[in-house]
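Quick one: structure for this chain?
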Amino acid sequence: MSQGKIEPIEAAPASEVRFEREADVIVVGLGAAGTSAAIAAADGGASVLALERQEQPGGTSAMSGGLIYLGGGTALQQACGFRDSPESMERFLAAALGPGVDAERLHAYCVESVRHFEWLVAHGVPFRAAFCDEPNRESVDDSGLLFTGGEDSWPFDEIAEPAPRGHKPQFIDSSGNFLMQCLTKALSRTVARIEAGTRVERLVRDGERIVGVLAKTDAGTTALRARKAVVLAAGGFIYNEAMVAQHCPEAHRPDPLWRVGSAADDGSGIRLGLGAGAATSRMDSFECALPLGPPHRLARGVLVNASGERFINEDTYTGRIGWHALIEQRGHVFLIVDEKIYERNMIGLRPEWAAESPEELAADLGIPAERFAATMARYNGHAARGEDPDFHKRPPFLTPLGPGLAAIDLRVTSRAIYATFTLGGLATDAHGRALDAQGAVVAGLHAVGRTAASLAARGYASGISLGDGTFFGRRAGEHAAAS
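Got it. Here's what it folds into:
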């Protein structure tokens, strides 16, 4: 595909199509969002045809850590001894995912979060009532609850009462594939028909309404009618070079490149929606995680930029660190440690330079020696008193460093991981219905998962993709069945 304007995939006129089969609801894509939509539509009494272009359901969801961002006082939170409310959850997410969060969709998500947790459990997704105190990444055992968005760090701990909301299905370590096994099994218990190896190439329009799809299999192309709605859940566009170059080129800046997704995240669902008259939203938004841990104890180190200055509190969420490091610091970042606090992290990052004084280390790093020395002197002075007036790092992570210092290379050209994926997509309402440029509903069309613009507008919290996808997938399926 060229580097120019991204062309919509125009919907085919119904007058030129002969439908061979039909269902009330057709779901395109069977990751977590599409599978949830298909389950909910079938539970709502609709006949459902669920199409997956790959040979089996799962998509990027099956490759994920499996965290689902939920809160408001779920049974799991209560069993682990944590209080939460929809209001507190909404205050945190409005700040952490913003600016520019869709207030109506966010409110619905928070108010119905407990119900959604119960829906997942009722459909066979188990959670063990145990809290994991290693944040930002899924637990290495099968513990079900953890902090995943910096809720207990500044500035968010001053915005809302901290509560862990990362809900991980009961599976050791990464549980995305297990989650998809549970949801796929739940789908198989419904009357929905699942057809893998089926790629939707065009939507079909009758006047202003979407009424079906043209789908290609090994046997050829077939026309399928949707009596009530089509639900697009075909993934994002991190693997579409032209779309990324056009909308969020910084997402491909890291080298070596870590794209979170699969080859199916090629933007085809978004292009199908554009061809049906839907609008897009926040196409320049993307997530970028820079994992410093586990162990989170490495947050006792100090992050500095090319000017030798701190730029963020090191104990915050790694997605927030990654975005600031890549965008605001242009990927030129070092983590300063000493021999007292250094531990090898999960991906094996090690110090590459060591020196007895800040000035010597600065010379090795190619950063301003006087400014770096002043940064370390100021940090150490405050840390000795358990304070961080500059970035409000919490006392458990405030430790004076030195006299000997070492630096871990976190530049984009190093072995550090800058993991990116897209957040923009089709504009939708709180029921997952696709919207046009004037905010009107595109009749017969829903979009969920990464095909739709995420709840995450600029910031992110781990688990919001599966939370957003399963939640609005369920809502879209319910609404489509009732339409």
